[in-house]
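Here is an idea for our session: we take a single protein and study its fold together. Start from the sequence, derive the backbone structure tokens from it, and show both lines together. Once you have written the record down, we can walk along the chain together:
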Amino acid sequence: MNYFTTLLSSRAFSLYLPRDLKDDIERYVLQHQKVSTTHERAPFRRQLDFWALAVAVAIAHDLPPLDSPPSKWGAKVVDTRAVQLPDGLCELLAVVAVATFGPNHEGVDDPKQIIDLGNCLAGAGSPELLKKLQDPELRTTPLDKALEFARTTRAKTLIPE
């Protein structure tokens, strides 16, 4: 566990996704499928996975974070005590916090402010991600679309393999 994972796991924080997109998001999350479905139809195992890609989409597409608190526009999808945030995601959130707040800002090592920023970025990136997943191209599955979108997002952010 690295410093930022420890920092962001120090207390319980809520991760939010847009309330008005809840049904659309759940359609692509495997844990919410009531009938047997495949990863091709529901490419995200957990809502945390959707949240993480939505954050990356907002960053890669230079979308500004939503400017109101997540409690106004969002629905809680996970508690950080219930799931372990991956080290890479914690590092990404830390880098984005430094870039957004500046290196001397108190929010750079305030886990609440970092998570709030992540929530606002996930809120901004969710519509774009859903738009890509709902693209009506007939021969590709949502999994194909999610993987291709993740690849192009990664290329835009220049994250090395």
The beta strands are 14-18, 74-79. The chain has one domain: 3-157. The mean pLDDT is 87. The two ends are 20 Å apart (CA to CA).
